[in-house]
């Protein structure tokens, strides 16, 4: 059975879409570890290791998670085929050890909410609105990065959320929680994803909303 980890606040239309496709949904409730806006976000507790052709989820120890930033971003990293990207001084030691055991090169960025800020398209391609992440990854010519404008994503209690937190890869599809067409960079985002041989799915019925990523274990 394929599992998809989602916030319990995910859109009902999104949940219905996955259930009709036959996926088993693992809804993440508030963990009581950090502030309410992100406490039920899967990417606070799990890290998807993007190892083609068999990605898997690293399950973190919730006791490592602190109440506020940067103590709550222990597992909010991006793990690609060759690289592990995060604010390394705040990464969970267990996750960092796993990345190194897998032979991943560790890349340090200032943005601790690394996964929130990145739509991971495949093992060497991602989309980000973060200037620092984009600037750092330009030094790695084997990585493909699309830089987009920040904002245009809802997150309760904040001015805006992040596109990485409003999306995730499920099989051969990048799925967005809400209406991607309302984002001013929608066309560029869709072209970038399709150029990697993947489909794009979004839902015009409700606003694009950050739910802490859509994390599939396949």
What percent strand?
15-25%
Mean pLDDT across the residues is: 97
Query: Could you give a short account of the major beta sheet?
Result: 3 strands, mixed
Number of helices: 5
SSE order: EHEHEEEEHEEEHEEEHEE
Architecture per CATH nomenclature, i.e. the level-2 architecture:
5-stranded Propeller
Instruction: Tell me the CATH topology.
Output: L-arginine/glycine Amidinotransferase, Chain A
Category by helix and strand content: alpha/beta
- Record field, number of beta strands: 14
Spatial order of the strands forming the largest sheet: 2-1-14
Q: C-alpha Rg, in Å?
A: 16 Å
* Estimated helix fraction: 10-25%
- Tally of domains: 1
**Global outline:** globular
Query: Which regions are unreliable across 5 or more consecutive residues at pLDDT < 50?
Result: none
* N→C terminal distance: 10 Å
What is the CATH first-level class name? Alpha Beta
């Amino acid at each position: 059975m394929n599992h998809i980890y989602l916030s319990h606040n995910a859109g009902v239309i999104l949940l219905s879409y996955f259930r009709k496709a036959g996926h088993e949904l693992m809804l993440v409730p508030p963990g009581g570890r950090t502030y309410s806006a992100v406490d039920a976000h899967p990417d606070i507790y799990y890290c998807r290791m993007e190892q083609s052709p068999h990605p898997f989820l690293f399950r973190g120890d919730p006791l490592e998670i602190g109440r506020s930033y940067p103590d709550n971003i222990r597992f909010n990293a991006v793990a690609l085929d060759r690289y592990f990207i995060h604010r390394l001084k705040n990464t969970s030691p267990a996750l960092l050890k796993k990345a190194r055991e897998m032979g991943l090169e560790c890349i340090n960025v200032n943005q601790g909410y690394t996964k929130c800020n990145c739509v991971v398209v495949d093992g060497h391609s991602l989309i980000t609105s973060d200037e620092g992440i984009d600037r750092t990854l330009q030094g790695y010519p084997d990585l493909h990065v699309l830089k987009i404008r920040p904002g245009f994503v809802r997150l309760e209690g904040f001015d805006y959320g992040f596109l990485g937190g409003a999306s995730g890869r499920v099989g051969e599809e990048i799925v967005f929680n809400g209406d991607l067409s309302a984002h001013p960079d929608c066309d560029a985002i869709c072209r970038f994803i399709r150029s990697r041989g993947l489909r794009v799915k979004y839902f015009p019925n409700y606003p694009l909303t950050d739910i802490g990523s859509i994390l599939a274990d396949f």
